[in-house]
Design a protein that fits this description.
With 422 residues, this protein is of the alpha/beta class. It starts with a strand and ends with a helix. It is globular. The strands form three sheets. The chain has a seven-stranded parallel sheet, sandwiched between helices. A six-stranded parallel sheet has the order 12-11-10-13-14-15, sandwiched between helices. It is built from 15 helices and 15 strands. 39% of the residues lie in helices and 17% in strands.
Length: 422
């Protein structure tokens, strides 16, 4: 069987599925942007093909459409690559594609009879989800109407992809719930999966943090508060975390706060020119902090991230109603006690007082109170840590749950393809 994966940053969410199919003897090709592929290691048995980086939308294009223009250009690059594959005799039996950057737009025009499975992470809403959730950054009239129109237009790529695919996958039930109802029958909920063998508790774990005068060694006997984002920004509650630190460090004089994340923007609006959200909110509270107890690590290798979770006393995870981060699941798999925001993506996994604790996203004092509660009663909180790991092992383990679900869905699609695609 020939299987094609299309993702601008291949393998993206597909490394385990692509390798599993290659190990079964199938011919597997991963198509992605050439510049991104060069930064990634090879996957055994998987052939990678790169296309040139497409041009972004032009500055003279209407601002609502610049993103879509870039997606169209990327879709065209994918088409050129698919035609080259056709000329070489490669006809896929199954195609997996992530629509987020436009790759999926024209695949069906090249391969109209091949089952196409899309991975759908989020459908944008002008009201009721991430946009406008945080009043500190919500657009006000008359810009509010402009924001609503922009968000509606932003879904053009999503809508075309949802219409084009034969089947779709969403990582969580929350993410499926925000998709248009008319397309939800196409969608199946399967998470990407967590390697719970690697992301596991280790009583002997240590993490060394360099400081100006010495090296701090953290272990499970230390008071360690962790916070992890791809980038430090409001969508993931970085501003709320920083506002809780003055009181938190005062009430927990032995605590060390370790923060992982870059200076850029993954979601939402960029910081004002020549500034970063990281610095804006750090400077807001800097005068009331002991900088020797706050450790910004930037982005770290995965192995170090797991070490951090293994020594963490409390992991704070905050998010707007948006895509759920892998890091929260990895923290739970390591037996972290997660204090999460009471927002729908988090509430899907964390049950208050059973496998974690929930707080209001906007309430720094509630976070401090919860952290203090955990630190003051570590033994009492141990069942929550064990339940957190059990939640991930039972429902999100890569090898025993998610990958088998992916393979089962694939077989169902292949067996029903002639009827569905007639």
């Amino acid at each position: 069987m020939n299987v094609l994966f299309v993702h601008q940053n291949f393998p993206g969410q597909y490394p385990h599925l692509a390798q599993a199919l290659a190990q079964q003897g199938h011919r597997v090709i991963g198509l992605g942007e050439k510049a991104n592929l060069q930064k990634r290691p090879d996957l055994p048995g998987v052939t990678r093909i790169g296309y040139p980086t497409p041009q972004p939308g032009h500055q003279n294009t209407h601002q609502y459409l610049r993103g879509f223009e870039g997606q169209v250009r990327r879709g065209q690059q994918v088409v050129r690559s698919l035609l080259n594959l056709q000329n070489q005799g490669f006809i896929p039996d199954l195609i997996y594609a992530h629509p987020g950057w436009g790759e999926l737009l024209y695949i069906k025009d090249v391969y109209p009879h091949v089952p196409l499975i899309g991975l759908f992470e989020f459908y944008y809403h002008g009201r009721g989800q991430d946009v406008g959730f945080d009043p500190e950054f919500a657009a006000q009239p008359p810009l509010e109407l402009d924001s609503l129109c922009r968000i509606r237009t932003k879904n053009v790529n999503n809508l075309l992809a949802l219409e084009a695919v034969d089947f779709g996958i969403c990582p969580t039930h929350y993410q499926k719930s925000v998709m248009p109802l008319v397309f939800q029958d196409k969608l199946t909920v399967i998470h990407d999966g967590i390697n719970t063998t690697v992301a596991a508790s280790d009583p002997q774990a240590q993490l060394s943090l360099p400081s100006e005068t010495t090296t701090i060694v953290l272990d499970q006997a230390s008071e360690v508060i962790t916070f992890v984002n791809r980038n430090l920004e409001p969508y993931r509650g970085y501003h709320t975390l920083m506002r809780c630190l003055p009181r938190l460090l005062q009430e927990r004089p032995q605590a060390q706060v370790v923060i992982v994340g870059g200076d850029g923007v993954s979601y939402g609006a960029a910081a004002p020119p020549h500034q970063t959200w990281k610095e804006i909110f750090y400077q807001e509270v800097q005068a009331h902090l002991d900088p020797t107890r706050i450790h910004f690590l930037g982005r770290v290798p995965y192995s170090q991230l797991i070490q951090l979770f293994q020594v963490s006393s409390v992991h704070v995870y905050l998010t707007y109603p948006f895509v759920l981060s892998w890091s929260m699941l990895e923290a739970m798999s390591c037996g972290c006690l997660v204090i999460g925001s009471r927002t729908p993506p988090v509430e899907e996994l964390i049950r208050e007082g059973e496998n974690g604790l929930l707080v209001d996203f906007f309430d720094p004092d509630a976070i401090v109170d919860r952290v203090h509660q955990v630190m003051a009663h570590p033994t009492r909180m141990q069942p929550l840590r064990e339940a957190a790991r059990n939640t991930i092992v039972k429902n999100y383990d890569l090898q025993t749950v998610c990958l088998p679900q992916q393979l089962t869905l694939m077989q169902q699609i292949l067996s029903s393809a002639p009827a569905n695609l007639a």
